[in-house]
């Protein structure tokens, strides 16, 4: 069973940085892809960045140039470096995984989810 555990969320002031981590376990090979999503209060969850089946990072327009996704295969850990944070980045951030054959794009339906980590940016 795939398990994803996020960490690294917290409270920062505008302009601050955070690095989220997602430790993955339960799948023995690289047949899975991973991504980051977020959910603002009262809104639907949205995709913000994934590493696609060709191991190429993809980003939603809202985070391009500000967030960086990376994957350490040796540790089975996905990261999201978030720089120059603003109050509108306040959300619960989720890590997700999917079998590559099911799709790895921002619009794919991911099947495995972490519990989420809260990011709060104050002005």
Description:
- The chain is mainly β.
- It has strands at 3-7, 10-13, 18-25, 32-39, 46-51, 57-59, 67-72, 77-82, 91-99, 112-113, 117-122.
- The chain is globular and about 40 Å long.
Characteristics:
mainly beta, four-stranded antiparallel beta sheet, 123 residues, seven-stranded mixed beta sheet
Which secondary structure elements does this structure contain, and how are they paired or packed?
Layout (H helix, E strand, L loop, with lengths): L2 E5 L2 E4 L4 E8 L6 E8 L6 E6 L5 E3 L7 E6 L4 E6 L8 E9 L12 E2 L3 E6 L1
Parallel strand pairs: 2-11
Antiparallel strand pairs: 1-3, 3-8, 4-5, 4-9, 5-6, 7-8, 9-10, 9-11
Morphology: globular
For the sheet with most strands, the description reads: 7 strands, mixed
Radius of gyration: 14 Å
Query: In percent, how much strand structure appears in the residues?
Result: over 45%
Q: Whole-Å distance between the termini?
A: 40 Å
**Which H/E pattern describes the elements?**
EEEEEEEEEEE
Q: So how many helices? A: 0
- Low-pLDDT stretches are none
The helix content is under 10%
Provide mean pLDDT, rounded: 93
**Class from secondary-structure proportions:** mainly beta
> How many individual β-strands?
11
């Amino acid at each position: 069973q795939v398990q994803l555990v996020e960490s690294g969320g917290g409270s920062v002031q505008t302009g601050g940085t955070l690095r989220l981590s997602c430790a993955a376990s339960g799948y023995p090979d690289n047949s899975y892809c991973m991504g980051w999503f977020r959910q603002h209060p009262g809104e639907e969850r949205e995709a913000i960045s994934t590493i696609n089946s060709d191991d190429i990072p993809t980003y939603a327009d809202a985070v391009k140039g500000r967030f960086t996704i990376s994957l350490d295969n040796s540790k089975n850990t996905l990261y999201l470096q978030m720089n120059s944070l603003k109050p509108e980045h306040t959300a619960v951030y989720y890590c997700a995984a999917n079998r590559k054959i099911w799709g790895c794009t921002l619009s794919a339906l991911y099947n495995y989810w972490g519990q989420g980590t809260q990011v709060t940016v104050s002005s």
